[in-house]
Amino acid sequence: MPSLTDRIEGLRRAFEEAAGKAADAKALEELRTAFLGRKKGHLTLLFEDLKSVPAGEKREAGRLINELKQAVSAGLEAVERRLGAARPAAAAASAGEDLTLPGRRRYVGTPHPLTLFEEEIERIFLGMGFTVEEGPEIETDYYNFEALNFPPHHPARDKWDTLFIEGDLLLRTHTSPVQVRVMERTKPPIRIICPGRVFRHETPDPTHLPMFMQVEGLVVDEGVTFAHLKGTLEYFIRALFGEKLKVRFRPSFFPFTEPSAEVDIECIVCGGRDAACRVCGGSGWKEILGSGMVHPQVLKNVNIDPEKYSGWAFGLGIDRTAMLALGIPEMRYFYENDLRFLRQFGAK
Predict the structure, then answer these.
(1) CA-to-CA distance for 11 and 27, rounded, in angstroms?
(2) pTM of this prediction?
């Protein structure tokens, strides 16, 4: 009867021969079962026979069995890798594919450019201690207009080109209703921005769409002045476009702010040096947002005492500002889902 050492060496040679001939997954599994099976596998039987080996020889025999087990495990993994590598090549050959052709590029999706731009705006304001608030896109006439100092027949309502749904329900024309809702449930100090989609009855053109993105901001506290508004917006604009950018404030009118101001920035395309500039029309300035001190009546409508508190607000179109910052000539490009366009901003 062969010794245990001879049996181990014989099994090693038998495994190497069988592993070299294994040509498919079935042969690999049969080989695995023959050597590592729990009941009748060759390694299992060797460990059982180890019990009858004399004490002086048991240590050496155990070492040889463990070495065989490691060699079998490594050999099975090598066969598995060999079969796995051969499988795609065989499939490609059967499909008639040319393996010398360049590989197909796999594109990984990223956030939409407007989402990335909105997140950059949020990052700047979060760094100044603001919080981000959201609200419903379907609003009532009260929150969208009346609470913001638009009487029922106020002519300023016409410029908002409202899309009404039914009764006093409408698609919000700005995110100012979110500010009203926050002021109703929160007492000052308030420091928020409100990004989101808004809707207006617009004829689509390069700078207008029936749906677009907007972000508005609101600060209400004791002792808030126009100087706070000016300093905050100048910091925000320069953080977004560059430290050396020129900024100016022009008097304007909004029903919910008094005094009100439009904010212009130096044309980042021509710098005011091109009379035919398509962005600024040769003026050297581009209007970017509207702002002003919160009207006392708006504070009264939400039960905040205008004698004790004051505030300021602003509104900015995310789409138009992104167009300016990224050099996009058409707002519609953002919504056409053209991968050639989107991949320029991170979808590689």
Answers:
(1) 17
(2) 0.67
